[in-house]
Structure formats: C-alpha cells, structure tokens
Amino acid sequence: MPHAPGRRALSRLATAATALVLAAVTAGTAAADAPGPAVRPSPALSAGADARLSPDAPFFPVQAVDGRGDAFFYLPNGKGGLSARERSGGGWGQVRAATQVDHSRGGYANGTYFLTTSHEVGYATEKSTRRVATDWGQYDSFFSPGTLGGAKQSDILVRDRAGVLWLYLAKADGSLTGRKKVGPGWGRYTAITGRADLTGDGRTDIVARDREGTLWLYKGTGDTARPFKGRTRIGDGWNRYNLLLGAGDVDVDGRTDLIARDGKGALWLYKGTGRASAPFKSRVLIGKSGWNQYRLLF
C-alpha cells in the first residue's frame, strides 16, 4: 500500500520548477536539487489517511502562479479543503502551462511538466530538470490526466489550434514519445481536464466543457490507440467558472475530485463519487475569494 510522501519530499516537489528550473530548461541542462521550505502534512493525512492514497486517485498539492511569476502551493488538508498557502519560488513568468504527474504510480505527485513561452517543454523532479521537447507553440491545451495506456507513467494530452487532440506517452525518465492522434473536433470545448479514474473502473478519464456550458465525461479505455469512449453528459451551468482543474484526491477519500474557480475568484470543490452516471457530488466552497489573482492553477 502506498504511503504519503514526507515533509521534505513534498517540499521539493512543490518547489521543483522555480527560477532554477527555468534557467536549466533555457540552457538545456539538468538542474541540481532545489530544496524549499518544509511542508507540514495535515494531521488527518499523517494520522493514517495515507493508506487511502492510490494511483487512481493521487494526492497532489494545488500549485498556483500569480501575475508576477511568483509560485505558491496549497496542500489538501485531508478534510476536503486546502491548507494555507506557502510560497515556493519566483521566475515563473515564462511558463504558460504546467501539470503535475505521478510517474511512479505511488499515489502522489513526483514530477512536473511545464510549457514555456518559448514553446519548450521541461520535466522537473525533486532532484533535476531537463528539456524534453521543443516547438510546441501549436498547442493551446496542455495537461496530464494520468496514464492512458496502462503503463506506469502519466501521459500528456495537448490540443492544437485546429481542434485536434494529441497524446504523448511518457517514459520512465520523463521523456516523451512521438505524438499519437486522438481525434478532431475538440475545438468545441473551452476547457478540458481530468485526473486519473473518475468512474471507478481503474481507467483514466477526462471531462470537457463546451461553449454552451455543458460538461461532458469521456471514459478511458486503457488503449492508447483509442483512449476514450464516446462522451456522456454530466450537466449544464459550467460557464460560471473561468477555470476547471482535475486536482486528484483533495479530501483523501480514495476518489479523484474536480476544482472550479468562478468569476468572482471563489474556489469550489466537486468531490468525486466514482460513478460514471454522476461522477461528482454537489459543489463545496473551499476558497471564498482571491483565487483570480492566479494566472495558473495546476
């Protein structure tokens, strides 16, 4: 059974892609350790909730970047909310997208991919950073939902400006394979996200919001040649949100959840149910205001 990461490991993971990381990617070299402030896991997590950590519902900190390029992280407190923020560094002004991954399938984040304004992709762990791809300027959506083909590593989904969705499979060292075409027609969506298993079948799923505000579920197949089944409707009214984030298991109940930010800057949690017919419970407020200060949440 996987165990929760310790204080020092969480600290390194939350601070991996700082100015030191960006300098390493720009130079195309590896960075040394990037230690940061100690992170105190919540009493609920350290008291035994770690036994519920699973690669199908991983435990991830919520990371945030503001308009100045300063980075922060919020640890799930084990009760369905987030702990007070802690600063993890600066220098994120050149990052336009980022996503955490669980390459070891240990049930918690152990690396970060990020896409820079110079269209390069970097991969950061608690020990090093390296450039793994270039010339990704054609993509307007970039995230990892987890493993889509049954391998250990978490894969990357991107959408090009023509609305075609592409899959890059990850290797053990963080490098990526050549892209595989998932399919056209994804330009109809204003948000695409998801993290691990939303339906209780052990396969990675995603959700997508269309321009009318309807949220759709795409169940995973476990086959990289055809990673998703046809869509099913979750519900309407999702245009009230300016950001959707597949956040992993925020309340540490063994099911993966969804975070949404509304136009007033409040943060809402949709707890996962593990059921395809209704993958989320009713929303719960976890941040009253101030979340619009961040240009990135991942």
Descriptive notes:
The protein is mostly beta strands and 298 residues long. 7% of the residues lie in helices and 36% in strands. It is built from 3 helices and 20 strands. It has helices at residues 7-14, 19-27, 43-46; strands spanning 62-66, 71-74, 86-89, 95-101, 111-116, 121-124, 129-133, 139-146, 155-160, 165-168, 180-183, 189-193, 206-210, 215-220, 228-235, 241-248, 257-262, 267-270, 284-287, 294-297. The strands form 5 sheets. Strands 3-2-1-20 form a 4-stranded antiparallel β-sheet, with no helix packed on it. It has a 4-stranded antiparallel β-sheet with strand order 4-5-6-7, with helices on one face. Strand 16 (241-248) and strand 17 form a beta hairpin. The longest helix is centred in the first third of the chain and has 9 residues, at 19-27. It is globular and about 40 Å long. The protein starts with 6 loop residues before the first helix and ends with a strand. 49% of the residues are buried. The model is unreliable at 1-7 and 16-49 (pLDDT under 50).
- Indicate the low-confidence ranges by residue numbers: 1-7, 16-49
- SSE pattern: HHHEEEEEEEEEEEEEEEEEEEE
Biggest sheet: strands, sense, closure? 4 strands, antiparallel
- What amount of the residues lies in strands? 35-45%
Number of strands: 20
